[in-house]
Design a protein that fits this description.
- By secondary structure, the protein is mainly α.
- The chain has one domain (5-97).
- It is built from five helices and two strands; from the N terminus they run H-H-H-E-E-H-H.
- It has helices at 9-18, 26-36, 43-51, 75-80, 85-97; strands at 59-63, 69-74.
- It has a two-stranded antiparallel sheet.
- The chain starts with 8 loop residues before the first helix and ends in a 10-residue tail after the last helix.
- The mean pLDDT is 79.
């Protein structure tokens, strides 16, 4: 994804201005959840866990400054939109900021 989506200047500018980017291994999240239980976690970890899908290889999550989960995008869905991956990723970011909660359904 980096070679395609993250080579777009508009996306890089938007990420740098509006987001804090990080990553967490799914295996680490599973161990954290099992060790502490959801109530024993720090608020940010709890928010990440609430958006975590157990068998998804990589998910992009948008989290508000108040630690509210605003959007979830499985990366494999971006690869399904390979002809327009940049537009799909940018739309995900914009819709998250607009409060449309993409990828969250009724969560």
């Amino acid at each position: 994804m980096r070679a395609v989506v993250l080579s777009n200047d508009r996306i890089i500018e938007s990420l740098n201005e509006k987001f804090v980017n990080t990553w967490v291994l799914n295996t680490d999240m599973k161990r954290l959840r099992e060790a502490n239980g959801i109530d024993g976690m720090q608020p940010l970890a709890r928010t990440i866990i609430s958006g975590w899908e157990q068998y998804s290889p990589v998910d992009c999550l948008v989290i508000s400054p108040a630690l509210e989960l605003m959007g979830r995008q499985p990366v494999h869905e971006l690869f399904n939109a390979i002809n327009n991956m940049e537009a799909a990723y940018r739309r995900f970011l914009v819709e998250s900021l607009e409060g449309k909660r993409p990828g969250l359904g009724s969560r």
